[in-house]
Amino acid sequence: VRSTNRQAAGEATATRDGRHIEVAANIATNGDARDAVDHGADAVGLLRTELLFMHRQAAPGIAEHRAAYQEIVDTLQGRSAIIRTLDVGADKSVGYLALPPEQNPALGLRGIRLAQVRPDLLDDQLRGLLAVQPFGRVRIMLPMVTDVPELLRIRARIDELAEAIGRTARIEVGVMIEVPAAALLADQLARHADFLSIGTNDLTQYTLAMDRGHPALAAQADSLHPAVLRLVDATVRGAAQHGKWVGVCGAMAADPDAVPVLVGLGVSELSVAPLAVPDVKARVRGLDYTQCRRVAAELLSLASATEVRAASRVAWPHRG
Ligand code: PEP
Ligand code: MG
């Protein structure tokens, strides 16, 4: 089965009744980009850039950013890449940032909020990113956005920096939906964003108020919780009002129980670890979109993740 999956992996993916789903890869390095290509990813749905900032004495400069992203874009041979701006905060040990200690780092200056105190870090990253060739292969994605003014501030800064280097083509800017507020305001955000990508790892953590790394809560902190599903549903509905697409780039996107549910809720891009691409594509190809829509709508009224998982396995049986 695996080698068959692997052969079909490079081809576009649709359900049996023709709903197209983009299956993209989450990457952090150029080696990951090679794996993504080798495993048939359609695109990169999330390039995590934290690694570039870690294990060093000072933040990377513009040229370094540009070189790192250019190498990856070259490796992708025409596939598009969604580059996420820096998503460290006081919880990750980037010593040279010298951020004041926080009592609740998960609720602190993380993600795009870091730009409030260190706008220089974001500016250099954006300047490097905007210089990558060819234009049009790269999109920007902002982590931990909470509301529209935050998005508009960064969008305006991106446009300023682009103009300063003579870049005329408008770059697409998407928003990660990882804060419940953003899911609830998805209709507003989608008016101004080019796409939305749900970070279900954080969205689950913040919706259920359960630390995503807490060993004793690991089983309960399940993205298939109906509260999380309702936020996914709200996000897709909000985006649809403005004709924008919605992806999922959290671990949920590769969960075989979750894939049919996400497809049924109207998500049209799944971004997963490079090695998971073939299996996710195979899973999507076995689905019927009409059935996914009907069942997913029913699952929204269940009472727990356990019930959702059980119902998913009945509707869409799988091994493993
Ligand atoms: C997420 O939160 O689901 C996500 C994709 O971002 P990260 O795991 O890097 O926080
Ligand atoms: Mg996240």
TrEMBL record:
A Gene Ontology term for the protein's cellular component: cytoplasm
Compartments where found: Cytoplasm
Single biological process term from Gene Ontology: phosphoenolpyruvate-dependent sugar phosphotransferase system
Source species, domain of life: Bacteria
UniProt KW keywords: Cytoplasm, Kinase, Magnesium, Metal-binding, Phosphotransferase system, Pyruvate, Sugar transport, Transferase, Transport
A GO molecular-function descriptor: metal ion binding
UniProt family annotation: Belongs to the PEP-utilizing enzyme family.
Protein name: phosphoenolpyruvate--protein phosphotransferase
Residues of the full protein shown: 527 to 846 of 846
